[in-house]
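Section 5.1 Outputs to date
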Amino acid sequence: MNLNLLRIFDAVATTGSVNLAAELLDMTPPAVSQALSKLREQYQDPLFIRQGRGIIPTNFALELHAEIQPPLKLLLNSVQSKQAFSASTSQRTFRISSHTDIDQMLVPFLHVYKNKHAPNINIIISPDYQDISARQDDLRLRKVDFIFATRPIQDRGYHNHLLTEQPLVVVCKSQHPRIKDELSESQFFSERHLSWIKQSNGIMNSNESAASKLDKRDIAYHADSVFSALIMAAQTDWLCVAGLWHAQQLADFGQIKTFKVPFNTNPIPIYMSWHQQSDPGQEWLKNAIIEAFKGK
């Protein structure tokens, strides 16, 4: 079966018009009609019948379209990835492996950027992996276009870009009964704390991103994300060490206050990693993501 014939059939079935399909595919209407004739002969079915001024698919055509559309889209995306990428017309699907805390910094920008510049593309952001090697395998097998983590990929064949480094701050509720305008190191360790350490390696792991002193905290509760920990810090007497950007998102509501960590800590890095054999579409998305993190 000629893949191009199915592409033409998909366009006619989607638009419900030979003329519109021809315009979409940059073809002439007679060329589209000729392709449909070949498919009618192949399947021994009229495929489309006239109704009023338009055409409607036969039952067989409806079933055929439902069957071919997912694999056809996958095949066409694979072909397009090796060709020139046009953001305004592409219907490509991109896949990103990230984490909830990083998504907060990325997804709102990408949503607006995509709607403005590439309204027909689809960006799927997968949930966190429990096995860090599995997500890297998916990148190697091209099941994922980009990985976001607090560690770069050291293996050969991959590129890494440092998107941002987030200084750590201490957060507590605005009306904390003991902590007022300053926070000393002794006060820091005398209070109980919230932790948002992830078990999967390299995903926003605050213990690895800060000095070893953080291991000495009295942990009252382990949250599954930094925002969960910050919201809980606003409602309890527990302290939370978090990245500056995440703390600022809640500080504007007046329910928390922030302090410098009263000892030396390392900032939290966020890396974007991708396979070195990228294509024009991936280059476009990579540049959009870099733009999203400017100033953060």
